[in-house]
Amino acid sequence: xxxxxxxxxxxxxxxxxxxxxxxxxxxxxxxxxxxxxxxxxxxxxxxxxxxxxxxxxxxxxxxxxxxxxxxxxxxxxxxxxxxxxxxxxxxxxxxxxxxxxxxxxxxxxxxxxxxxxxxxxxxxxxxxxxxxxxxxxxxxxxxxxxxxxxxxxxxxxxxxxxxxxxxxxxxxxxxxxxxxxxxxxxxxxxxxxxxxxxxxxxxxxxxxxxxxxxxxxxxxxxxxxxxxxxxxxxxxx
Length: 237
Ligand SMILES: Cc1cc2nc3c(=O)[nH]c(=O)nc-3n(C[C@H](O)[C@H](O)[C@H](O)COP(=O)(O)OP(=O)(O)OC[C@H]3O[C@@H](n4cnc5c(N)ncnc54)[C@H](O)[C@@H]3O)c2cc1C
Prior knowledge:
Layout: E1 6-15, E2 20-27, E3 41-45, E4 56-60, E5 70-75, H1 79-85, E6 92-99, E7 111-116, H2 120-132, E8 139-145, H3 154-163, E9 167-173, E10 185-186, H4 191-196, E11 205-209, H5 212-224, E12 232-235
Parallel strand pairs: 7-8, 7-11, 8-9, 9-10, 11-12
Antiparallel strand pairs: 1-2, 1-6, 2-5, 3-4, 3-6
């Protein structure tokens, strides 16, 4: 049974980069946000724009659960996202969910998150939840972006890393040459990069989300490194 649509008001708009905004919604029916697990997604529906097609799209929760608000990280693309970016504070949309099975395994294995571009959103939610809970499992996030100025949520991820000793955040820039003064990782996420940062291929569970080409290459890399299928989890958009 799909969850019913409920009214939400847009309560905060944060311009993260030129193309990406965080949109925060507050329930407009007096009920709390439904419980969800990090990695799950919601359907957002716009009903007051005549002729909008599609009028609904899926978005992963980008921040850990809060009863009073629901946050998404959204990249401007086509029809739906243009309509969404026209919304002002106080405007209403409808939201249903949560949905999906891209959630953290309940075991003691180390966690390795692999993201590219806006595919960071479900993994950011996982990082926030795990750091808030001071989860005992070793946690790595490898985050790949073409250019530094187009990479959303870096200050937040750095703050989460600073707040939790188990969390290691590795940001890699794939454009060549890397920006002036950049002394982080360069190039695509690879098995060699993961090994250099201490990833335990024999035990870790791997979670990834990004464009199709990125997902395909992560799948190939992990299978090539001998990671069992049960330890590979992906979200395909
Ligand atoms: C489970 C799930 C979770 C998701 N989570 C997120 C998230 O957290 N953040 C996020 O930003 N997205 C997320 N998405 C993607 C999101 O659902 C939308 O697909 C995305 O926002 C694009 O929607 P749109 O209608 O604005 O773009 P669309 O209109 O679908 O356009 C998509 C692309 O197609 C191009 N295009 C559109 N029309 C044409 C045309 N006529 N000819 C040629 N090219 C065209 C556009 O330029 C654009 O590059 C998620 C998807 C899934 C399935």
